[in-house]
Amino acid sequence: MIVIDYTDRRPIYEQVAERFQSLVLCGVLEKDEPLPSVRNLAMELSINPNTIQRAYTELERRGVIYAVKGKGNFVADASALLALREKELEKEVCSLVWKAKEAGIPKDKVSRLFDAAWQNEATDMRKALQEKRTGGEAYD
Question: Of the chain's two ends, which shows fewer C-beta atoms within 10 Å, N or C?
Answer without folding.
Answer: C
